[in-house]
Fold this protein.
Amino acid sequence: MALYDYGNTRLRARISNLFSMQMLESLADLTTIDSLISSLSKTHYKSSIEISLTYAHGYGCIAETLRRELSEIRQTLYRFYDKDLWEKIRIIFLRVDLQNIKAIIRGVSHEARIDTIIDSFSPLGTIPERVLSSIAKSKNIADAIDKIAIYELDFSTELLEQKTSQRSCCSSEIERTLEIWYFNKMASILTGRGENTKLLQKFNMIEADIVNLNILLRFVNAPSSPEIEDHSIDHYIINSGNFSRDQILRLSKESSVKNVITQLASSKYHDYLLEALACFSENGLLSEFENKIRIYALKWLALLPKLNPFGVGVPIGYAAMKKSEIRNIRWIAKGIYSGFEPEYIKENLERVG
């Protein structure tokens, strides 16, 4: 555990400086972007604000500041922990790499504008933005896979095999291959029985639950979707989560999303799924379920620096709380820019406690 001492000591100090909900609500009371910039410049965002102000103003300054702060999370953890520990900690950023590559695959598949694809990248990933931008400029998915191979990204072998074997290279199949690679990679890294490994395994299982729940609800809600009609749900299920394959297959036969969520009422996500179901009933957005499970994960992660003060709980808890703070500031900025009422902005803040 002593190996974590140097980084954990410094991160605990940073955790203590994170914005309280009272501070976030006071920011939501501001009426202009300039006043938000001024307020943030008096906090630990000062350095990022000052750099961003040299070439951006208004909402653009806020956006650039938050991108810098997101990137700083990864850079900070890389500086604070030695190579062996970083290999475990970087797991929380590999998921972002996967999401960035997925954004490229979807964008190229749908012939989206290059700037639209690039704007969707999260700076939290470990793949350099210049590499992502180069891949995003691919003519088609096959070209994107070739570029992924040229840059020798971790999952290039699996994608090349899919391409050369003449299997389907539609975006949904590519995403499936990437998900299989990711969870196999996690299984190879997360070996052993130590407390740190168990925490990371739990983190990974929540990610697998989100993937499987998304798949399950899409099959139940739109069984004739062109993306999924050529395969059974069994083709897409990930084996690494808390929901068993048999359970997912059984639930896939339910006639409605409501029935599925009712059947999952005994899971640890119970309250969050029911909240999501209420929102889904109003707006029809399946994304509500993932959003609520991520709130469950956030609250669990936020407890780890106290529950696991001498291990990996501090860096992964800090990363989660800092991301949440940045997400809230972005929402506040959008709310102010859009002229939303302060109470509406406050009601939709992401609350850890």
